[in-house]
Amino acid sequence: MTESGYFRPDTLPTTFCPGCGHGKIAGYLDRALQALGYAPEQVVLVTDIGCIGMVDKSFRTNAFHGLHGRSITYASGIKLANPALKVIVLMGDGGMGIGGGHLLAAARRNIGITVIVANNFNYGMTGGQQSVTTPVGMVTSSTPWGNVEMPLDIVETLRPARPSFLARTSVVSDDAAEVVAEAVATEGFALVDIWDVCVAYFARRHPLNRETMARMMEELEMPPGVVRREGRPEFSEAYREQSRGAQTAKPAPGLGLDPIVRSSLKERRGILICGSAGLKIRSAATVLGAGAILSGLQATQKDDYPVTVRTGYSVAEVIVSPDPIHYTGVDIPDIGLILSRDGLSYLERELAGFPPTTRLFVEEKLGTVSTRAQVTYLPFQETAKSVHHLALAAVGVGAVLGAEDLYPPEAFVEASRRLQDEKAAATNVEGLRLGLKLVEP
Fold first, then answer.
1. Which has fewest Cβ within 10 Å: 255, 286, 396, 416?
2. Do 297 and 173 sit in the same domain of this protein?
3. 218 and 323 share one domain
4. pLDDT of the residue at 4
5. Is 245 part of any domain?
């Protein structure tokens, strides 16, 4: 490391207001990094909007500058993508308040990032407005008669989430650099709440120095020091370890979806199944997709239904393909299955735009549909009655499998047995058999 440590000499001195505590915080981070000895390319500084966000350009490390309150999300993504990186967030109390939900999630997961909060009790970049950490009674540009809200205790808010490290210090503390170094060295989530000085706004009305900060901490019952230190598993590594175990684990006999037969399908097929809520439309679609996987194909499923239960439409889009599926939408279906009046109402406005290459299988009681697509009318509802009304979707899927030759029907049978209880599987298998018969030559 050079004489300027991790700082870029061409950016010094930093551009903060004379007397601003942010420059000291940058210095503490530089000293911490020098003490720990990380290679600059191993470190990523993540900042957001706010005065402290201007500091990232002053370091000879990797840097990412984003939106207000979102630095935690960027940092989490970077750490998950490359756990070997040392990811450090520099944010103010303004950004911390805006991104509070992200902060809680990262602490709860114990994602291995270090968050340094430059806490100067106001929005210093936008005019000195009150923030979530402004003490009660303090005057700011947005609270001219004094703040009436309780200030947020950052470290105590995060303590129940049980992250690896939590501490509070100040820019006038003699051990600030050492506290920052311990936080950066922590493998799991670490946060340091550094009480800071905004000379442009907050400190004009409320002088801050070693004595007044100590008194504020005492009056607010927010003492300095390390509040939590625990070596629980870091999220990105724990998640990868779990994934490695899942990838190497062998399913029990009769479980899993390793292929048991082979499909002769050569091209992707988008299938739209439209029916009514409560008729197992989505369940049948899941079995259809699982059967495709058991046949050596790729499969995706997307469902649509209202918020109500057992009323209205139920629609499932299933894609089966011999090749990887990179786009999971069915803009124009290759195959459509319309099983009820609710399903027809859902699709009615789209039917006129379907090309002649689309094949529709429609419940015959619904009458003639107006479309350029190829239409086959079949007695799905009457056929299902001989088994159970909940066999309707399976009857329709059986007709589609028989007419379209997507994959061998025995794969659907096996998927039903693996994914459903015995009674539901029996209903599906019988429905499939009857649907196949509907389209026999």
1. 255
2. no
3. no
4. 64
5. no
The closest of 164, 222, 229, 236 to 193, measured between CA atoms, is: 222
Residue at a domain's end among 215, 238, 261? 238
Under DSSP, the state recorded for 19 is T
| Contact status, residue 380 vs residue 357, Cβ threshold 8 Å | no
233 plus 287 within the same structural domain: no
What is the C-alpha to C-alpha distance for residues 10 and 240, in angstroms, rounded to an integer?
40
Reply yes or no on whether the pLDDT at 408 is more than 70.
yes
What does the alpha-carbon distance between residue 25 and residue 31 come to, in Å, rounded to a whole number? 10
Torsional class of 24: left (φ above 0), alpha (ψ -120 to 50), beta (otherwise): alpha
CATH code for the domain of 290: 3.40.920.10
Whether 151 has a pLDDT exceeding 90, the answer reads yes
261 located within any domain: no
The DSSP annotation for 23-86 comes to: HHHHHHHHHHHHHHT--GGGEEEEE-SSGGGGGGGGBSSEEEE--TT-HHHHHHHHHHH-TTSE
Cα radius of gyration rounded to whole Å, the chain: 31
Same structural domain for residues 21 and 131? yes
Between the alpha carbon of residue 329 and those of residues 283, 291, 316, 346, 349, the distances in Å are: 19, 20, 11, 17, 18
Residue entry with tokens 């901490």: 217
DSSP state of 295: T
Number of domains forming the structure of the chain: 2
* Mean pLDDT score of the chain: 94
- pLDDT tens digits, 265-311: 999 999 999 999 999 999 999 999 999 999 999 999 999 999 877 78
Between CA 173 and CA 225 the distance in angstroms is 10
Closest Cα to residue 79, out of 227, 238, 232? 238
The whole-number average pLDDT for the span 159-167 is: 97
257 is a domain residue: no
User: For residues 65 and 53, what is the distance between their CA atoms, to the nearest angstrom?
Assistant: 7
Compute the distance between CA of residue 237 and CA of residue 44 in angstroms, rounded to an integer.
18
Name residues whose C-beta falls within 8 Å of residue 432's C-beta, 6 or more positions apart in sequence. 394, 395, 397, 398, 401, 409, 412, 413, 416
Shared domain for 209 and 311, answered yes or no, is: no
Q: Name the residue range of residue 127's domain.
A: 9-238
At residue 321, φ and ψ (nearest 5 deg) are -155, 145
Could you read off the pLDDT of 1-20 as tens digits, one per residue?
A: 445 689 999 888 888 999 99
Residues 411 and 285 in one domain: yes
Q: Are residues 216 and 319 in the same domain?
A: no
In a domain, 247, yes or no: no
User: What CATH number did the domain enclosing 160 receive?
Assistant: 3.40.50.970
